[in-house]
Amino acid sequence: MGFTIGGSRVREIRPGARRRGRATECTAVAECTGLWGWDVAPGARAAAGRCSCGDAGCPAPGAHPLDFAPEVPAGATLDEVAKAWAEVPGASILLPVGRTFDVLEVSEAAGRRALVRLERMGVPLGPVSATPTGRAQFFVAPGAAPELPHLLYRMGWDDADLDLRCLGTGHYVTAPPSDHAGLGPSRWLRPPALGSSGTPPQARLLLGTLAYVCHRSTTA
């Protein structure tokens, strides 16, 4: 037995494992909607480089929302999530960026070092995730993406070659523990917490440290 999304078989799993997988997925989605106040978009999955959307030329296998599946809105209960996810069994869990948060993204190595510094400094932090592609993603207040060049200029980092970018409206991130692009699960470096997940910090509070660590990483 296996699951399909958009008419394409992704992988074979036993019925018991499938039921457990669906329960885990529903719980993770319900945490995103009910606890953290995030919308969730059912996403495609990938296996052996093939995307479950069925497009042989898909430019982002397993890393984009399913066109035919509606989002599960923030506030949805576990029962509502279970009903919605029954229509897209096996879908990945994607979070739309630019609504309740933007994302500052750096290499995972730089992100881990910056996270230690920021925690020692007592800087307020939101969730921080890591992808199987080696990227760390810091959740910050929405609106940061268009402001990033100006913020870097004000801090004197505008002419530095930094491995740092900001994701905003139109982007999606994979919510842990969901699989990212068929490469493995995303995971939390700093998990969401009640009281902070819905109100992440302003990007400027983190940006100086992230830029410094990224710069040190390229010059070390």
Walk me through the structure.
This protein is of the alpha+beta class and 220 residues long. The chain has 5 helices and 12 strands. The chain has helices at residues 15-35, 78-85, 108-121, 144-154, 203-219; strands at residues 2-5, 8-12, 41-43, 46-47, 50-51, 92-96, 102-107, 128-130, 135-140, 164-167, 172-174, 187-190. The strands form 4 sheets. Strands 10-7-9-8-12 form a 5-stranded antiparallel beta sheet. A 3-stranded antiparallel beta sheet has the order 3-6-11, with helices on one face. A two-stranded antiparallel ribbon has the order 1-2. A hairpin with a 4-residue loop joins strand 8 and strand 9. The N and C termini lie far apart (51 Å).
Radius of gyration, in Å, reads 18 Å
In round numbers, the mean pLDDT is: 89
Largest beta-sheet characterization: 5 strands, antiparallel
Number of helices: 5
Helix content: 25-40%
Low-confidence stretches: 1-19
How are the strands of the largest sheet arranged? 10-7-9-8-12
Structural class: alpha+beta
The coarse silhouette is: globular
